[in-house]
């Protein structure tokens, strides 16, 4: 059996009086995409900082690619790349110079660095902008360069801290495609996000973090079903939701419910049957307790 | 896209430092305003002191020989100060986290800035000396004295660049780094750079004679113009080495302490 890509046990971190991580337990299977979903200040970036050896934990252990993040920092560094919350690129240099610098620092020879740089520029559609200073790049281009830099040499585990924050919809989708391609190559991807849709689209496993604790873990489908089943939504002619009624989704339950309601509601009332989306999941998990609309 | 091999060797210390030095030199070359200011400002000051104040300070017209060593250090100090901003910019940008999570000695980022500052300032010093010769500076130094003066100037630049690097590391932002660094630029005015210290009030003489810039200026003046100050050379070298050592340790300590914080 292959060992876990990331294994976190009872991890705690306090800054001053502020408890940032309050006993985190997680495991990530190799070759999967793992999304840590949570609001600002939930502890996402701190967890990434600990896993990428930037910050030492106060208590607990974390192993990345089989190595302990506190005791075997150099071995962990050889196994990871970190793409931080703000594009970690050098604005003064050109895209090409950025890539070549990181290739050289990653141990490639000057000749290999040149070849690899050209390859990455092409793959990330940056060849045309290669000789322009990064300062002039758009948000999407910076992020693409950032990811290209992370792939200078292949490392088994990749950390992406809010990779699509601040990007427009088109750039976001392009980035999602790239992330899924990386997964195909067998790279384990650990990403943080505040966007439910992003976690839903990309992740094999999602962990919801709130106030330094993991409040739920599972696939998108599992999390949704945990919040509750389908809901009958009733809307008035102004398209405002007037009632939400939980249902088990069977024709029997739905017809009985509607039959009871038909006599008390105006005939123009519109009916739809919805599954909970990630938004409902998120609100339910982070507010504590499942909140289902009044019946 | 091909996938390169996973187990590449890490970059050696020599390659790491070479990469960071060439990065910082590129930064210097592309920051044209700072580069021009580092040369133009000291030259303006030299012309100001020689042609405007010089006549009043020394009516004999020999002031240029007195003031040039001071201008050289002013130029070196001013040129080194931009290191504080360069370092602070790197420390507040996401790129530092990337360097720190790579299997390299990431302190090389700072070493790169220091090396670039040394190169930049030695060139600026050369230009300043060239202009000084044009406006009447007449050094008496022979080969060995020139070499000694150059070594002392290089040591001075190195010491103050590391000091500014430490300031850049401690400062919370590039603007703060620039502010703290500015305060240090007044040190040459409180030394024997522009007027002999015995013309100052007694309390100020105490400050001027016991601060590190004065022995460095006296030593360079002695070497270049034959003024009787050869005993100042060791004092100057010791001051510079002390500042260098303390600043390097301070930088390394701060660099490690700030990991993961921006």
TrEMBL record, chain A:
Residues 6-236 form the ABC transporter domain. GO terms for molecular function: ATP binding; ATP hydrolysis activity. Gene3D superfamilies: P-loop containing nucleotide triphosphate hydrolases. SMART domains: AAA. InterPro entries: AAA+_ATPase, ABC_transporter-like_ATP-bd, ABC_transporter-like_CS, ABC_transporter_ATP-binding, DrrA, P-loop_NTPase. Its main location: membrane. The keyword Translocase applies. GO terms for biological process: daunorubicin transport; doxorubicin transport. Keywords: ATP-binding, Cell membrane, Membrane, Nucleotide-binding, Translocase, Transport. GO terms for cellular component: plasma membrane. Belongs to the ABC transporter superfamily. Drug exporter-1 (DrugE1) (TC 3.A.1.105) family. This is ATP-binding cassette domain-containing protein.
From TrEMBL, chain B:
Residues 33-258 form the ABC transmembrane type-2 domain. It is found in: Cell membrane; Membrane. Its main location: membrane. InterPro entries: ABC2_TM (IPR013525), ABC2_TM_bact-type (IPR047817), ABC_2_transport (IPR000412), Nod_factor_ABC_transporter (IPR051784). Keywords: Cell membrane, Membrane, Transmembrane, Transmembrane helix, Transport. The chain crosses the membrane at residues 32-54, 66-88, 109-134, 146-165, 177-195, 236-255. PROSITE patterns: ABC_TM2. It is a multi-pass membrane protein. GO terms for molecular function: ABC-type transporter activity. Pfam families: ABC2_membrane (PF01061). One of its GO terms (cellular component) is ATP-binding cassette (ABC) transporter complex. It comes from the Bacteria. Belongs to the ABC-2 integral membrane protein family. PANTHER family: NODULATION PROTEIN J (PTHR43229:SF2). This is Transport permease protein. It comes from Paenibacillus rhizophilus.
